Amino acid sequence: MLSERRLEVLRAIVQDYVGTEEPVGSKALTERHKLGVSPATVRNDMAVLEDEGYIAQPHTSAGRIPTDKGYRLFVDRLAGVKPLSSPERRAIQNFLDGAVDLDDVVGRTVRLLAQLTRQVAVVQYPSLTRSTVRHVELLSLAPARLMLVLITDTGRVEQRMVDCPAPFGETSLADLRARLNSRVVGRRFADVPQLVQDLAESFETDDRGTVQVVLSTLLETLVEETEERLMIGGTANLTRFGHDFPLTIRPVLEALEEQVVLLKLLGEAKEPGVTVRIGHENAHEGLNSTSVVSVGYGSGGEAVAKLGVVGPTRMDYPGTMGAVRAVARYVGQILAES
Question: What is the pTM of this model?
Answer without folding.
Answer: 0.77
